[in-house]
Automatic annotation (TrEMBL):
Keywords: Membrane, Transmembrane, Transmembrane helix
One Pfam family named in its UniProt record: DUF212
Descriptive protein name: Divergent PAP2 family protein
PANTHER family on file: ACID PHOSPHATASE/VANADIUM-DEPENDENT HALOPEROXIDASE-RELATED PROTEIN, ACID PHOSPHATASE_VANADIUM-DEPENDENT HALOPEROXIDASE-RELATED PROTEIN
Transmembrane parts of this sequence: 60-79, 115-135
């Protein structure tokens, strides 16, 4: 099964969905608001789509799926913890540099809420399910 397609399709799908949501919310300013942070979590969708596809194709108790789940949890913890802290630090630095000539405003929205991560997981689930159906229909699965 061509597992390598799943992260690319998950990333593309999540990024397009994030842009559409931001365009509906903010209009032409959406281009500046799309990036790290926001709904759905593109990092989560990119990692969860191949991990779930491996679970469907190789089995939920396979070593590859177990390793994938560990990696997915690290990504989720990073998105909801570390990158939230980085965004808070950027906010403090932005306040400290208000009066500087060469001020470069740092992006404060870096992390994700639990709902945004859940959205990324749902995108990953939809992508992996669709790919599994397509690969099965085309005979690209390695079922014994």
């Amino acid at each position: 099964m061509p597992y390598f397609l799943a992260p690319m399709i998950g990333w593309f799908t999540s990024g397009c969905l994030k842009f559409i949501i931001n365009y509906l919310r903010f209009g032409k300013d959406a281009r500046h608001r799309t990036g790290n942070g926001g709904f759905p979590s593109t990092h989560t969708a990119t990692v969860s789509s191949p991990v779930l596809l491996v679970g469907m194709g190789e089995g939920w108790f396979s070593p590859a799926f177990g390793i994938g789940v560990a990696f997915l949890l690290i990504v989720i913890i990073d998105a909801t913890g570390l990158r939230i802290a980085v965004g808070k630090q950027a906010g403090v630095l932005n306040l400290l540099t208000v009066n500087h000539e060469k001020r470069e405003i740092m992006r404060e929205r870096m992390g994700h809420t639990k709902l945004e991560v859940l959205g990324g997981l749902l995108v990953g689930l939809l992508v992996s399910t669709c790919l599994y159906w397509i690969f099965t229909a085309w005979g690209w699965t390695q079922l014994d």
